[in-house]
Every structure is written in structure tokens, then in C-alpha cells.
Input
Amino acid sequence: MAGPATATGIGVWLMTGAAAEVQLEYWPHGRPEAAQRSVPVAASPLRGHTVRIDLDGLLADTRYAYRVLLDGAAVELSELTVFTTAPADPAAPRELVIATGSCNYVPDPPYEVTADSFGAGFEILDTVAARRPDVMLWLGDSIYYRDDDFAIEDQAAARMDERWAATRSFAPLQHLLRAGQHVAIWDDHDYGPNNSNRDFVHKATALELFRNYWANPGYGLPGLAGIFTRVPLGDVELFLLDDRYHRDDDGAEDPERTMLGLAQLEWLKGALRDSRATFKLVANGSRMLSDRPSPETRGGEGWHNFPRERQAFLDWLAAERIDGVFFLSGDIHYTHLTERERPGTYPLTELTCSPLTARVHPRPFPVREVPGTLVTQRNFCTLEFSGSARERLMRVAAWNANGVRLWEAEFPAARLRTPKARPAR
Output
């Protein structure tokens, strides 16, 4: 599985079945005579036989083919594995397709699927791969820990690692892992138990395993643990948030409680202020813009349960006149767009996309949804970016497991800009 590429480098993740010396042999596509080999890396039980190999010194805007060598012998796969480096100009607009989704539940062996199975419909994984996305953005719950994984304290770390390994070994997932480049955030089920927060006793182990099984460009800051990071993709930039490691209890009554934590929130503000991207995609496991269905109903997890923190951020966003912001989330087992009007500036929109293979929510309760965008079947979404620098367009669509488009919405860059103030007379 390839992580996000720069103009000159990329990180490639893989997992072996046993201890081995691992190398990548790689070459510009169509030029096998120019093949190079990476420095050998040991796959050991200490990291669940996972390795990340970082390649550098690559040519910009170039398609590469590669193969895996285990103890010097080439691994034969059913398809050619490839990646493409970014253009030399890191801010240049480009044609880009991001596929996204959340809630990928893999059942335990023997993987029998019945009418009552929580996880099913695994053909959707090949359907996503068939769309050939440049980037696959996993919006959380990419694995599902079970309560039994934490039942015995001194066995929890090993059981959690086994859960990751079992999910990554699942045969229907392999084509998608080899397609495009992958980045991820987590939500509760790939962090810990259902609705878990900063009090989760094994959160340091959860973070270590998340780092072992993904190839994100960064994880938190020095001195500030977490999975949050930035992923520049030309004039599109991803701001990946961590909604678990520093999160207070959603149900608490303390008005000072937080979902992101003060330090992460300050990092996000600085990153948004600093970004020159046309489209700034803020990705979080829990919903960001939705509200409670009623004052008496909490309406599931989300930033609406931390009203003071959210309102302060939205006020800041408007005051700073940050253009191009669009929110992404998963978690709730149905899909829709949420729109939030803001006087004097552009409305904020959030795409919530879920589930991939987990069960669909039997009683969805969307709030502020855009008419015609509610999806109550297994699905994934795409964000396609096109057009010249002056006429950039983001096209958002939802697709069912068979690749049939369910709806589409267009967001010209101009729609996500603060109107210019008229000069005083």
C-alpha cells in the first residue's frame, strides 16, 4: 500500500507472513532497465511483520512500477503495482480523484456472511479500486476492535495487533490497498471500544498500531501525541484530525469539554491560516457541522456535543475569512451532505460518508441535510478536482456497491470564497 507521494518521494507499507528481509525494486513505468532497489528493511514480530519503506530521489510527475523482494526473491502478484509522484510545483492545480468512506467491518474467520452479519457487501472494495482513485481517504473505523480484544489486560496489545493483521490480510481488501495512495484517520472502533475517548487505557498502544499499519506523512507533533497531520495534494490540502486521543466524554455537562483539545485546535487554526490551497478539506471521524435532532436528543457523537468549542472555532473561521474550507466525516452508517449557512460569508458544507462494509443505520436521523443526498445503503464517495487555476471545480458524488452513482453535487472554488467587502462611501 502506497502512502501519499511528494514530487521526489513516497512511503510504501507492507506486511509479511513471517520474518524477512524486505526490499522494493522500482523503475519509471516502461523502463525496467532503470530499476533500483531500496535499502533492505527487516520485517519482524516486534511490529507485526509490518514495514514502511521510504523511497526518495524520484522523478517528479512520473509513474513508477515496483515489486516486493522478500529475502531477495520477487513476490509475484496478480497485478502490476504502481504509484505516481506529484508534480514539481507543489501548489499546481491538477486533475485529482479522491475516494473516501468509513466503517469497514471484517468478520472473524471463517468469514461467513448471513442475513444478520454486521459486515457484508465486500464487493464494494473492488468497486472503489475500479474507479482508480489517485488517493483513498479512510474516514475512520477502518477496522473494528471487539470488546474481547481488551478483556485481558496483559493480552490487549497482542489482540489489538492481531485485529489489524486479520483485517489487512482479508482477501477482498487487497486490490484496493494496491490501488492509488492511501491516507487515514481513526474514529472510535479503530482506536478502542465504542465511543471511546481520552480515558481509554490502551490509547498509546492504539496510536502505535495505527502508525504501524498506515503510511501517513505524519502523526501529531513533537510533544503532542495523536494522528493529526497535513497532506498537500497540489491546490487541494487535507487536514486530518484526531477526534479521540484528547476527547472528553460526549455526555459530560462541563461546557469546557473538548473534542479536539486546545493544542490540536491551535495547530488546525495555524495550518488553515498558513495554507494556500484552493480547497481545504478538514477530515474528522465524528461529524463536525450536524446538530442534535432535538434539545432532548443527543443525536449520536459529534462536535454538536461540544458546542462552546465548536462555536469558538466557527467564529474564528469567519473572522479570519478562511476560504475553501470543506468538511469530511464518517461514523454514522449513512451518507449525506450537511450545509450550515453563515451570514456575510459562504455556507459551510460537510460530506459524511458511511458505511463501506458495516451495517447501515436502521433509523437515520440527519440534521441540516442537503435534500437528495441521504444514502441508506453501503456506499463510498468521490471528490474530483478539475479545471484551470481560475475555474477550479470540486465534484462530489456518492456511489453504491456496484458503482452506480447515487447523487452528485458541484462546488466551484468561487462558491467557497468569502465575498469581497464593498468599499465604504
Notes: DSSP finds six helices and 20 strands in the chain. The longest strand covers residues 20-28.
